[in-house]
Amino acid sequence: GESVGLHLPTLSVQEGDNSIINCAYSNSASDYFIWYKQESGKGPQFIIDIRSNMDKRQGQRVTVLLNKTVKHLSLQIAATQPGDSAVYFCAENTGGGNKLTFGTGTQLKVEL
Amino acid sequence: DAGVIQSPRHEVTEMGQEVTLRCKPISGHNSLFWYRQTMMRGLELLIYFNNNVPIDDSGMPEDRFSAKMPNASFSTLKIQPSEPRDSAVYFCASSRGTVETQYFGPGTRLLVL
Question: A34: which chain B residues are within 8 Å (Cβ-Cβ)?
């Protein structure tokens, strides 16, 4: 029979363009957020994190923006490369412990 | 530095058999997490430990699943008896402390026939 799985939103970008991946989180009490990258056949890999007392944080080619007013998180990747092709997950820590809640993920496809 | 180590990387077993998955967290990390990832349900937290003590096991599907952490450098996730619906990728992750980045292992791909 036909298999049914999570429908991952897909973002297709041209190599060299900037990518923006968005994430809406649910809990206004969340105080810590992480972006992970997962390549096929591998475990999630840490990209960048941000705490709720900040609204922007930059890394190498990546920037995370946090808008607590609308509970929105975004990951910006500059000059997207073929190696950036992967599924990207946002995760939030809802406070009171180590528990992370992961989003469903966004598939990023980089076209040559 | 060695990351989180998981074994085996792949496991194929028959329904009804016992399966044991193993994890070695990053040295110095005092929190350990077990996740399951499937196409249907995405990435789900099964259980996590702080300082070797289970803190939250609300994600453990049922009594067939059990997890232990006998010391700071080793944890097991056991499924007994296994069922085909347990087929998934099981990830172990560790972090330095509360509200810190979790680092994932490569996963164990489990197929129960």
Answer: 101-102
CB < 8 Å to A3, chain B: 39
Residues in chain A, overall count: 112
- Residue type, position A80, single letter: T
d(CA A95, CA B89): 27
Compute the distance between CA of residue A37 and CA of residue B45 in angstroms, rounded to an integer.
17
Whether B103 and A46 lie within 8 Å, measured CB to CB: yes
DSSP per-residue string spanning chain B? ----EEE-SEEEE-TT--EEEEEEPPTT--EEEEEEEETTTEEEEEEEEETTEEEE-TT--STTEEEEEEETTEEEEEESS--GGG-EEEEEEEESSTT---EE---EEEEE-
> Could you give the CA distance from residue A42 to residue A10 in angstroms, rounded to a whole number?
19
pLDDT of residue A95: 63
pLDDT in tens, chain A (112 residues): 344 556 789 999 999 999 999 999 988 888 899 999 999 999 999 999 999 999 999 999 999 999 999 999 999 999 999 999 999 999 998 766 678 888 889 999 999 8
Count of C-beta atoms within a 10 Å radius of residue A17: 12
Asked if B95's CB is within 8 angstroms of A6's CB, the reply is: no
